[in-house]
């Protein structure tokens, strides 16, 4: 089976600094896949290479069997890959519903003529997007907050709203950039359950970057570990936990 997302020998240089060196991975459709590493390991750079924020110095990225290397983020999103950000990026003055509908517009099927004249097709498409947005808010447990401005939502709900907006684009793959950052243990547990439901019920493949080792080990089925821009391990959680190179990278001491 061909991988849904594949990176082949990705390298990223900033002047004389090599931030990522020859990174490769293959994520199959339906996987919960984790990308971890200590601070400064190059995780965010890899994320930005995969999602089109950066063009790699060398190497390729393939998504759904198409070469997307260096394509801009909107083009990649239109192909079916969405993402969230480490620092939440919402339209604070818009309601929760309007934020999710903003994501749904990517799949809209109306033109400028329809929008200006408010044609029947425009009305039908607007209703479809609204219904889809309400469905996602209910999936996130945010249906009662649909009319609230995003800036008035609690932190945990803002995180969930950003994920809902990313899902509104109807992606094949969602890339989550440290979604548990700033959450308490109870919120993290709820987030883990939510991410699993995204895969199991919405049938969306998940790529997760996260510092919380307990969350990643309990959720992801395969994990790749970066350190100083290089891959030091890749495998199932039980293999990663016992890998001497991973232990050294995180604790500064080799096992044994």
Kindly state the mean pLDDT as a whole number? 89
Structural class given helices, strands, pairing?
A: alpha/beta
Helix-strand sequence? EEEHEEHEHHHHEHEHEEHH
Kindly estimate the percentage of residues that lie in beta strands according to DSSP: 15-25%
Helix fraction bin = 25-40%
* Low confidence ranges: none
The outline comes out as globular
Distance between the termini: 39 Å
Biggest sheet layout: 6 strands, mixed
The largest sheet has its strands arranged as 6-7-8-3-9-10
Radius of gyration: 19 Å
Number of strands: 10
Q: Enumerate how many helices there are, as a single number.
A: 10
Key features of this structure:
256 residues, alpha/beta, six-stranded mixed sheet, four-stranded antiparallel sheet, 10 helices, 40% helix, globular
Tell me what you see in this structure.
Helix content is 40%, strand content 23%. By secondary structure, the protein is an alpha/beta fold. The longest helix has 21 residues, at 120-140. It has a six-stranded mixed sheet with strand order 6-7-8-3-9-10, sandwiched between helices. Strands 2-1-4-5 form a four-stranded antiparallel sheet, with helices on one face. The mean pLDDT is 89.
């Amino acid at each position: 089976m061909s991988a849904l997302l594949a990176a082949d020998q990705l390298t990223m240089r900033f002047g004389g600094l090599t931030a990522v060196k020859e990174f490769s991975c293959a994520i199959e459709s339906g996987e919960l896949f984790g990308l971890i590493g200590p601070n400064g390991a190059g995780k965010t750079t890899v994320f930005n290479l995969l999602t089109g924020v950066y063009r790699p110095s060398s190497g390729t990225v393939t998504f759904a069997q198409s070469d997307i290397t260096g394509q801009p983020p909107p083009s990649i999103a239109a192909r079916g890959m969405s993402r969230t950000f480490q620092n939440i990026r919402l339209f604070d003055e818009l309601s929760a519903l309007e934020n999710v509908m903003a994501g749904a517009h990517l799949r809209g099927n109306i033109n400028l003529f329809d929008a200006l004249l408010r044609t029947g097709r425009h009305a039908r498409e607007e209703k479809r997007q609204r219904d889809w947005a309400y469905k996602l808010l209910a999936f996130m447990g945010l249906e009662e907050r649909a009319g609230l401005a995003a800036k008035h939502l609690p932190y945990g709900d803002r995180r969930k709203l950003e994920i809902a907006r990313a899902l509104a684009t109807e992606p094949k793959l969602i890339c989550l950039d440290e979604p548990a950052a700033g959450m308490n243990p109870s919120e993290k547990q709820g987030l883990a359950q939510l991410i699993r439901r995204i895969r199991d019920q919405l049938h969306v493949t998940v790529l997760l970057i996260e510092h919380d080792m307990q969350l990643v080990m309990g959720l992801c089925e395969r994990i790749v570990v970066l350190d100083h821009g290089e891959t030091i391990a890749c495998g199932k959680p039980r293999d990663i936990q016992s890998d001497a190179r991973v232990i050294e990278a995180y604790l500064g001491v080799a096992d044994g």
